[in-house]
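User: Fold this; tokens only.

Assistant: Input:
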Amino acid sequence: MNDIELQDEIHELIELHAEGEYWDFKQQWHSKKADLLHDIICMANSPANRDCYIIIGIEDKTYNVLGVKDENRKTQQNVIDLLREKPSWAGGYIPEVYVKTISIVDKKIDVIVVKQSDNTPFYLLEDYKKEGHPVFKGAIYTRKGDTNTPKTGTADLYDTELLWKRRLGLLYNPSQRAKFYLKMVDYLKKALIYGHTSR
């Protein structure tokens, strides 16, 4: 998706005057790292199974476009550094994110694009306690409708199973599943070769 297509899609989402399964509005950038990390994990584990958006610069409840302020504003590198500074992601899988700045009604808004992935569920192996209420190890955070799993909670059994099925390729139709398994076989071959040659 190019920037024009992204801008058009975000504009349409703002016009809905509601949040949803794959988009969330924020009036301003998160002031606490734990809050931003939690929101990204929820979007990475969204049942929507598509790219998700954290849209920053939209007023709460009224959905007016305010634009982003410099206070607490982060670059794409800042967000990636936050994800990488947490060394204990389960399986080593880290959500892939991009930060895009677009213009809506002549105001700049930032969009954190959380890329669709089959490596769900994303979760931590250690508590993240920097700034704000901790993001807990082992907790599966996701998004249900327009609501994120609370930091003190975890996804229900149905949503957790759905995320694991996505990782295992069980949500695909037969032809897609065959491609998925061939890709996994190729990955395992490379891993075995690498493991063998590194000894």
